[in-house]
Amino acid sequence: MKVFYALVLVIVLSSCQTENANYESYTSDLDDELITNLINASNGVGTSYYLLPDSDDFSRIPQDPLNPITAEKVALGKLLLHETALGGNPKMDEMNGQYTCATCHPVASGFFSGRRQGIGEGGIGFGVNGEGRTFNTEMPLDSVDIQAVRPPTLLNLAYQDVMLWNGQFGGTGTNAGTEAQWDHIPENAEGFQGVEVQAMQGQLEHRLKVNEEFVDSYNYRTMFDAAFYNIPQSERYTRKTAALAIAAFNRTILANQAPWQEYLKGDLEALNDQQKRGANLFFDKGLCYQCHNGPALKDQEFHAFGFGDFDGSLEAMVLPSIDFESVKKGRGGFTQNPDDDYKFKTPTLYNLADAGAFGHGGTFSTIREVVEYKNNGVAQSAEVPSTQLASQFGSSNLTSDEITDLTAFLKDALRDPDLLRYVPNTVNSGNCFPNNDEQSRIDLGCN
Hints:
2 domains; mainly alpha; Cytochrome Bc1 Complex, Chain D, domain 2; 4 strands; 15 helices; 31% helix; 2% strand; two-stranded antiparallel ribbon
């Protein structure tokens, strides 16, 4: 059997035409088991089902037909995502140019928010991994740009057609039948997918500003012309084109250098035995694969696991203007379908080690805590009816040692160690990024 599964691994991997793969001529019992589990979990496809493409292999990256990925869009989007000069529509003039998309999605924390709650305008400081960002006490709290759920990572966004925890952004596929809820999301009606819609809506929500003045002030005209040469000049330098560039770049932010990816390509020594045991639990007894499957280890579904919500502390403030009851209902708050209540979109599991807080309310601080929570099956939120909870919740019956192994797989095997490749050395404005307030410049060494 050992020789058979080694042959299966080589055949499956060879079919992917992976260059320079370090194929092994033998497997261990752990590898035999893992290959079997991968074949079963992928309905017979095997290891290739879990491979992420290279970030410049645009033909293999899922994309919006209305926004084909090009090198020119990606190059522009990479800069715009980090360009703090985009923060050009603040409520307080003195905060102009201090924040951008990457403020709540810095690479230092794996493109997650560096703290439990992201703060755009109205935040100061960065710390080491973004954890040091705090509220600017000179700004009225009700004017601070904060959201009522934890910002997820930008990693592997290409593998979903809707965005946000409730999936409200995106006008195709998953959101078919939700048209009645699109009144304030015109881009859905245009047929754009979620990554593109979020990039458009996000500029409005987070007080960013792209227009011809911005383009010329910061020398972006040539890049816009190269990326959108087929769009009339009168429509070329806008929130929409900026969003299409940012979305194209976001689709290329893939954790394709994680040890797990190297293992799938044929390097059987990329994982240690503990991580392999954890992977076997993930794709078998732990039931994780039932929601976290495919290249990004996530489905396009919504599930209720009873996670807690933001608690109103300074680490998780909810503004009075927010319809928090709707937010807490997740997918149901958007669709208005009671069957969807308290269900949230499945997140990717890559680079969790960089995240620092977990769940849509950021109510856990370690990966192990989340594994233990799902294993125990006792809901944090008393508002979530037991009838809504996912069938996997509390049904895996893992031992303490198995939880340790599964945590090792999630923490280390799924961590891409070189996300800095997705960050520019500088942005055209010359500003500090991902934040440009005085304290952040000190923290980031920009002064």
